[in-house]
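[Automated response] Your request has been received and processed.

Submitted sequence:
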Amino acid sequence: MNRPNAALIAELTEDLQPVRAMKARDGLLLAALAGAITVLAVWLAADLWEGIAHGEASAFFFVTNGLLLVLGLAAVTATVALASPSVGNRQDAPRWALAMVAILPFTAVATVFAAGSGPAALVDPYSLHCLTAATGASALTFVALTYWLRRGAPVSVETAGFFAGIASGAIGSFAYGLSCPIDGVAHLGLWHVLPVAIAGLIGRTVLPPLIRW
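Generated structure:
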């Protein structure tokens, strides 16, 4: 290597500082911690529904919250992976999980109309409360995943933001759902799924400018 090139390289690397390598395990632990704190906060603020332990919850209660948890885990894993660019980094799991969860609102609407009820049957006194509370419960996971994405270098910032929002909304709705005693198809299928769509939209629109590198 000739002297001019060596001097140029030395000048370019003079101010470089070593950084800690990002490990997917750390991102998953960060999201798990945020999710655990969210569940704890829901427990302290609203208490968990005793009907879960007493066998009073319907099968649809477990189906809905189980699918939300699966979607949250799949989207968190995808978001953490997208923070580290790599060739062929396809993330199909959250798309399939999202497709499964998307069936729930259609089931809610179909069930109500099949019973001969009108659109008013989709709304109950707790609908808006569950919508806003579950959306609010997604905040901590949203902040944690935003921090992780900002540390990384996502190639597709729109996809990363969308999955981060979906993950946050699913985990927030799952956490708050543990306190909700209304286990009907219409309520769970609509008002506990809408927070996922809202958080996904927020992630898709708000996060890309924050995580672009």
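Summary generated for your ticket: The chain has a mean pLDDT of 90. The first helix runs from residue 3 to 13.
If you did not submit this request, please reply to this message.
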